Amino acid sequence: MFTLYDADRCPYAARVRITLAEKGIPFETVAIDLDDRPAWLYEKNPAGKVPVLEEDGGFVLPESAVIMEYLEERFPEPALLPADPAERALARLLIERHDGFSRPYYAVRRGEEGARARLTGALAALDAVLEAQPFLTGREYGLADIAYVPWILRGQASFGLDIEPFPALAAWLEQLHQRLGIAAESAVVAAL
To answer: Quick check: is 10 catalytic?
Structure first.
């Protein structure tokens, strides 16, 4: 059995919740107050961040992208990375480059000058990818999609992020809302 050290408001933790849901993996949740992190959390992750996934037997793994890859390798069905090595590599590359999206997102949240323009540029880049393929992961839904969607959902809810000027991105998000993991995460975001 897995235990997820989690915070509903954390988009990185959302990545892991969605991956677990998409793979149908049961887990227990330990909610972490990000404003008052317990000292024991630093024993599980020296950075004191969530998510942290712990498995019975003591295996502990922090960092959302690493956890997603671990779950994909440990539970290969349903596949959330493409079978084709080139497509798989491109999906991993998008996940690796996620900071180019999250940095302007957080800058908007902090009210930094010029942040909305940078975020608009990041949205345009995602839209361009989605004009060429139906999902960020490639021909099929997968980890790259899961890596980005928590920020878009939270941006829409918290500061009115508008994706309508990006038709491929808007169509992608509409498709994703049909996924059980994304629908569950949308409910989490609505309750924040």
So the answer is: yes
